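Question: does this match?
>
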Amino acid sequence: MSWGNDYLQLLADRAADDFRGVKVDVLGERLVITKRTDIHCWTIFRIVDATRAAGIPEERVLSKVLIHFPEESPREPDVTILSEGTGDEPYSHEAVLAAMEIVSTEDDESDYAIKVRQYARFQVPTFVVVDPFKGQSTVLSRPSGESYASQVVHAYGETISLQLADGRTVDIPTKDFKRRSTMRG
């Protein structure tokens, strides 16, 4: 990472420690701070509950824990499923079977573009973007370059059937996912 990225990450870490109730991300050369909401939290709980119901041990399911990428900003996915046998922190992108993000703002460039490119570039097998504004979840799989070869959109109410790279399946029911109102109306 460059000096500028290191400095931004230091600022992000300090801001996250000093200001509770916000999410702090380094996106390119920007520091982005967004408010956490109850809907965001409930969605994380429902996804984690689904992974547990699928038999994924709690040691392999994380929320808001740093995942490291060489020469790039680390990420803290809202939910991460790690491969079996993954050691202790710090966690590498190579251990990630699936990363899931709940969109914090409408038309979220971070989750729909920046993180898609980074996760695909580093071969994270599955990336899920849950969007409470649109009432849908997008499952991206089969990373190729800076994008994913497969993209499946699920409306809220449908069950997402995640096929993990280790052969396991995690069914995530979205019928109880809550919507967020949009600023547009």
